[in-house]
Amino acid sequence: MSTSTGTRGESVPTVHSAYPADDTAQSAGGIDISALLERGRTLSTPVLRAAVERLAPPMNTVAAYHFGWIDAQGRPSEGDGGKAVRPALALLSAEAAGAAPEVGIPGAVAVELVHNFSLLHDDLMDGDEQRRHRDTVWKVHGPAQAILVGDALFAVANEVLLESGTVEAGRAARRLTTASRKLIDGQAQDISFEHRERVTVEECLEMEGNKTGALLACAVSIGAVLGGADERTADTLEAYGYHLGLAFQAVDDLLGIWGDPVATGKQTWSDLRQRKKSLPVVAALAAGGPASERLGGLLAADAKSSDFDSFSEEEFATRAALIEEAGGREWTSQEARRQHAVAIEALDRVDMPERVRAQLVALADFVVVRKR
Description:
By secondary structure, this protein is an all-alpha fold. It has a single domain (33-368), classed as Orthogonal Bundle (Farnesyl Diphosphate Synthase), CATH 1.10.600.10. The chain is 67% helix and 1% strand. The protein is built from 16 helices and 2 strands. The chain has helices at residues 33-53, 59-67, 85-96, 105-126, 137-141, 143-162, 167-193, 201-226, 231-258, 261-264, 270-273, 279-287, 290-304, 313-325, 328-347, 354-368; strands spanning 130-131, 134-135. The protein has a two-stranded antiparallel sheet with strand order 1-2. A hairpin with a 2-residue loop joins β1 and β2 (134-135). Mean pLDDT is 90; it is low at 1-12 and 14-24. Belongs to the FPP/GGPP synthase family. One of its GO terms (molecular function) is metal ion binding. Keywords: Magnesium, Metal-binding, Transferase. Residues 1-23 are annotated as: Disordered.
């Protein structure tokens, strides 16, 4: 295994040397990752668009803008709709239970709607002006629409999932509701951490497990539940998704400081600008030593600064360099790989077609080897 230790814009942790350190189309096992993601997008998008069309105007067009289907003027667009990892996982989840991938479509759409509900609200709460290389919804359509459309997506997610009226749909809805509550818990924790001088690594991992792990865990179990899987199988698939979510978030935390803005679509040093207590920051502060102590002093002063918003690029670069010097970047890279390994181990406890297992492993590799 290797890690990236260079400057902003370089790749994040690699899982094994045969896997290119980039958003790649092929895994080391020859599995076409792009095809897996495209299948999830292709099968779920028509149902997703139909769900959005249920919303009253102008919420339907605001949501369409958020998903990249139209531009700010309402013209058809081919905007970046995201990686579509969750829909891909939901379809594979159904196959892991021995069902056809199409069985997982309502779950894939429901999870994607909840995920985008959280993005709409998070962008507003965090003050993010850019997502996927475009102005965020609150920036274009105002905070009220961002709140309303997010709420509407959350509501319609449950409609889509429960429409079949089956016992399996009810079981799936319970898992989605629990995951949504944990996601909101995680966002509340994340916001509260911004106002604290110190956060422990354990607290940060708990927050990220809620904010990111819970919904990915749901995505990997919801298709199986719809396909009739028992609770033990669904719970084990959730364990894979939960630890994959922690790996995913660890990589996001690295990209939030050192990611290339051209790839991420966000500002340089974006998490530092928001004073986020992400894993690299928390790990660096917990490490001790001169760099850690200097970083702690700077961040404590930042919290009281009245001109923080006018900080120069050099000031943020100094903080990023101290985080790296204190070991926060390396620790987070290692944590991403550790969580990846735990996720893969969970798959060994599920009886599933070997082809599906290989695809789930390949998607896990993709999650921890990316630039956006």
